[in-house]
Amino acid sequence: MPEIKTLAGQETTLQDIRAGRAALVVNVASKCGLTPQYTALEELQQKYGDRGFTVIGVPSNQFAGQEPGTAEEIQTFCSTTYGVTFPMTEKVDVNGADRHPVYQALVETPDEEGDAGDVQWNFEKFLVSPAGDVVARFRPRTTPDDPKVIAAIESVLGD
C-alpha cells in the first residue's frame, strides 16, 4: 500500500488510516460548488463510524484551483465550517503525471456505467471494503447520502 501523509504531515498509508474498516475515499475541496457534500460525509462518519466505517478526505487542488489552502487552512475550514471528524490526508494530485500512487489504483475501478479512468471533479467517491478491495465508485454529483451510496456502504458493513 503506497504511503501518503496525513493532513498533519505524518507518514501513513490508507490501510493504516482504515485500520481494517470500510472507507469512503473522497477527493475534497474547500471552494467548490460541491463542498456542501462535507455535511453528508460527516453524517456518514457519525452514522457508520461505530460499525467499522470511515470517510477519508483527500484534498486536491487540481480542479479549477478550488483547494488552494495550506494544510492548516484546510483543517480549520473543515472543522469549523462542517465539523469534520474523519481523517484527512495531505493535498495530492488525483489525475495526470503526478497522480498520487493511491489514486493510481483507485481510478482503475469503474463507475456504475462501467467507466474507469481519471477522476472527473472534486468529491468523487471510492468505497473500499474492510478487506481493502475497491468495490464501488461514485462520480462527484452522486451525493454521499444517495441511496446507492448508502446501500453500498451497508453491503460492505454487513450486520
Protein topology:
Elements (H helix, E strand, L loop, with lengths): L2 E3 L5 E3 H5 L3 E7 L8 H12 L4 E7 L11 H12 L18 H6 L18 E4 L5 E5 L8 H11 L2
Parallel strand pairs: 3-4
Antiparallel strand pairs: 1-2, 3-5, 5-6
How is this structure best described in words?
The strands form two sheets. A four-stranded mixed β-sheet has the order 4-3-5-6. Strands 1-2 form a two-stranded antiparallel ribbon. It is of the alpha+beta class and 159 residues long. The longest helix is centred in the first third of the chain and has 12 residues. The two termini are 28 Å apart. The chain is globular. The protein has one domain: Glutaredoxin. It contains five helices and six strands, in the order E-E-H-E-H-E-H-H-E-E-H. Helices cover 29% and strands 18% of the residues.
Low-confidence stretches: none
Name the CATH homologous superfamily: Glutaredoxin
Instruction: Please report the first level of CATH classification, the CATH class.
Output: Alpha Beta
The radius of gyration computed from the alpha-carbon positions, rounded to a whole number of angstroms, is 14 Å
Helix and strand sequence = EEHEHEHHEEH
The total tally of domains equals 1
How many helical stretches?
5
Determine the fraction of residues in helical runs and give it as a percent range: 25-40%
The CATH topology is Glutaredoxin
What profile does the largest beta sheet have?
Answer: 4 strands, mixed
Distance between the termini: 28 Å
- Beta-strand fraction estimate: 15-25%
**What is the strand tally?**
6
Overall body shape: globular
Output the structural class. alpha+beta
Overall pLDDT: 95
CATH architecture field = 3-Layer(aba) Sandwich
GO biological process, one term: cellular response to oxidative stress
GO molecular function, one term: peroxidase activity
Active site: 32
Family: Belongs to the glutathione peroxidase family.
